[in-house]
Amino acid sequence: MEWLGHAKTTFTHSPTTLNLKKKDGSSTDLLAICQESTPPCRLNPFLFNGHVQTMLTSVKVDGPPIFYKRKIFDAEDPAYEGTFAVDFVVKKYTESDDELPIRTTYFKDEEFEDIASLDTRPMLVVLHGLSGGSYEIYLKHVIEPLVDAEGDRQWEACVINSRGCAKHKITSSVLYNARATWDTRQTVKWLRKKFPNRPLFGIGFSLGANILTTYLGEEGSHCMLKAAVVCSNPWNLDAGSLALQRTWLGREIYSKTMAANMKRLIELHHDQISQNPKLDWEKIRNVKYLHEFDREIQGPTWGYPTEGAYYRDASSTDSLFAVKIPLFAINAEDDPIAVNEALPYQEMKQSPYTVLCTTSLGGHLSWFEIGGHRWHARPCVNFLNKMAFEVEIEAPASMTNGEGTAKPGHEMFVAMRRKWHR
């Protein structure tokens, strides 16, 4: 029946997943929550494989009308100096800012201070994909039903824009990479302090999913997020890169397009990034494919000797072993970018905190249904609502100390994951 758009869903998990208690007193577990959250996957039958699904994402439409106000943060960690932008979902307004993405303007300092800080609404922290931003349709399809919910089931949300993305001006020679957890860590710590009563949740898409999973592993049992979802995570970047290079479509369409997007991004910030003496701009401008971009930009910037070393270090697969909060992962088996061979099937079977749902159709951040809605939003929204309103989750230790950094028990793990950053 797949040719009619009826995709098969499969769940990969440990023999016994995390036991959870519902607020009505009954018992459940993480697998049951994930399965209950996942409706049948019925996609547009005319988009009959992952390539067609994925290529439709190049057709830019507006999507749900989400309004944002932006706050600029100064990086606290001197190793990653510069600023980054976080866009907060707000109520509809009439003013506009032509220098920012659609429906986005800046917070005024006094305006932001007036935001209620003692409410108990759940808050979603969102990480977008490669060279994207808060305007991306795939994330707005998840945000809209959460923030537009009525009564006590209404959410707050914010999107952490990777440096230089979403028309944020880079203020140092530091861009970002596939394991750039530092801005996420600072944002979550700030949110915990600013909104002490809000339960925090996370969701990441594509590269943002890889970053979020790595962050969860680094934080371990002290993570300030209560639960998280990751969609189209590439997981094993080395395997994914080799798969892209193996086929004409992978090399000449996907890899070349992603490289072009990243080249445009760094050209927008040339004055700042060119201050990095390790970069050779003649080589950079001759780049055609994504792995070449990573070789010429990410390698020299972060001290990796090869793009393979960068991919192996930045991959989030091994982070699963250190994740200690409920994590729901969603991938399509026909994804031409986050390829099936790179998915962590065996690793998922080793952790009670994680469940992987794979669909036989869907492409990369696509899952188009008839009418243009994205199917992935349905299990994401259902899971987040269940975890926020139906399940009792003990507050992590970090909520009482306000630190939100890796504790001694994770020092070895973090040191291993950051070995190339010395």
What would your notes on this structure say?
The chain is 35% helix and 17% strand. It is of the alpha/beta class and 422 residues long. The strands form three sheets. The chain has a ten-stranded mixed sheet with strand order 2-14-13-12-11-9-10-7-6-8, sandwiched between helices. A three-stranded antiparallel sheet has the order 4-3-15. The protein has a two-stranded antiparallel sheet with strand order 1-5. The longest helix is centred in the middle third of the chain and has 21 residues, at 248-268. The termini are far apart. Belongs to the AB hydrolase superfamily. AB hydrolase 4 family. It catalyses: an aliphatic alcohol + acetyl-CoA = an acetyl ester + CoA. Displays enzymatic activity both for medium-chain fatty acid (MCFA) ethyl ester synthesis and hydrolysis (esterase activity). MCFA are toxic for yeast and this enzyme could thus be involved in their detoxification by esterification.
Helix content: 25-40%
CATH architecture: 3-Layer(aba) Sandwich
CATH topology: Rossmann fold
What's the domain count? 1
* Structural class category: alpha/beta
Q: What is the count of β-strands?
A: 15
- How far the N terminus sits from the C terminus, by CA atoms, comes to 52 Å
In the CATH hierarchy, what is the superfamily?
Alpha/Beta hydrolase fold, catalytic domain
- Major sheet summary line: 10 strands, mixed
Overall form: globular
Instruction: Enumerate the spans where pLDDT stays under 50 for 5 or more consecutive residues.
Output: 396-410
CATH class annotation: Alpha Beta
Estimate what percentage of residues fall within beta strands. 15-25%
Mean pLDDT: 91
**Strand order across the biggest sheet?**
2-14-13-12-11-9-10-7-6-8
How would you name the oligomeric state of the polypeptide chains in this document? single chain
Q: Using the CA coordinates, give the radius of gyration.
A: 20 Å
Number of helices: 16
